[in-house]
Each structure stands twice: as C-alpha cells, then as structure tokens.
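Run Putative nitroreductase TM1586 domain-containing protein through structure prediction, thanks.
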Amino acid sequence: MDNETLYDAIFHRRSVRKYDSAPLTDQAIADLDAFIRGLKPLVPDIRTEVKLMLSGGIKINAPHAVCLYSEKKDGWRMNAGFMMEQVDLYLSASNIGACWLGMTKPDKGKAAPPAGMEWAATLCFGTPAQPMHREGAEQFNRKSLNEISDVTDLYHVLEAVRLAPSAINKQPWFFSGSAGRVIVSRKKSLMLDKLNQVDTGIALCCLMLALLHQGKEVSFSFEKQPVPEKHIFMAAAEITDKA
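Sure, done. The structure for Putative nitroreductase TM1586 domain-containing protein is below.
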C-alpha cells in the first residue's frame, strides 16, 4: 500500500469498537503481515518486533490484535506510535476496523515479550460491526489548528496531523518553529505521560505522510530544542523540496 493511500485514510478513519466475531480471512492476515514487514521506523536504531494474535492471548472485544514490542531507548514509545499508526491507517484503507488500546497488554502467560524488549502499543482489529469511516473532517472532534501550532505557513499540512488519534482525544502535541524546520513538543502530563509519547509518534507519522503528499521530504532529529512553556521537546522536522 502506497503513502498516498495511507494519507487519504487519515481523513476518514474512525476508532471502531464493535466487531463481527468471525476472524479475518487468511489472505487478509497475510497481506497485513506483509505490510508490517515494511513499516518505516522513526528512530531506525531501535529494535522492534510486531506480533499478530487472536483474542485468546489478550483481553479485547475484537477477533485480532497487533502488538508492538520494543527495546527501551530514547524515543522508543514515540517510535512505536509512529510505526503503529501506519498499521492503523493501512487497516482503515483496507476496510478493516481498528482501535488503539492504550494500556492493554498481552497475557504474559500466552505471549511473552521478545528477549530484551517491552510491550509498547496495541491495536485491536477485525471486521467492523458499525460504520468505520467518517465522511469528512467536520465529523472529527479535534482542536483547531491554532491550538496545535503557530506555524501558519504549514496549516495546509498540519490539517492532517490535527485529525490524528490520541489518548482520550487530548492531542498533546504542539508544532512551533518555521515551515522549514518544525519543532515538535507535547504538553506535560503526569497521568498520560507514557501514552502521550506514543501519541506524538502517531502525529509525526501523519506529518510525514502529509509532507510527502505535498511533494516534500522530511528528516527527523532529536537534539533538544527550546519549546513553549509547560511543554516537552520531542523532535525536530527538517523539511525540504524533493530533489
């Protein structure tokens, strides 16, 4: 599945919470597995492993789940969100319902973490038993663009980021800097700190897809930069025209 298809899915995806109990076809699972093998990481030197499982190994209300495990390095939760949002958008574009499960981990007795790794994120998925696509941006309950960024020259790109999912819909991210170098930070939150790190990775995935759609290239760096008060630096995005 190409980047344009994933980008288009941003504007219609919905968190699905009701599913048909029947599992997906073997072909659908094989196609998903092939897509997962090509996931793009945000931080390439972090080892990760993605596991597909049936509901018997994890407490979910869907026939399937996909879990990402990661070694613990700087940015590992953000990297997990970046990678798993690609899966989320793939499922939506494939007419397969999915939902982020914030703290739902596999049963350790049935699905032990790979050596040297910890659970980082879970999506449940299956055939939806409810409408799974929104008709347009007006059906999203989200913050306005000026609440998530002061880089007005990038509002046409950040509209896609504005629609990204986040834990209890808090949208903790903020984009400052300039149209050529965006500084990404998140609001401080004791209660949602771990989840908000994943959320920021989700937002960066949507940012990357939106920039690619606009004919831009983007690279991410992680050397700490100044950010607004009561925010935590997460990443800097260097944006250039495609060669």
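The longest strand covers residues 231-241.
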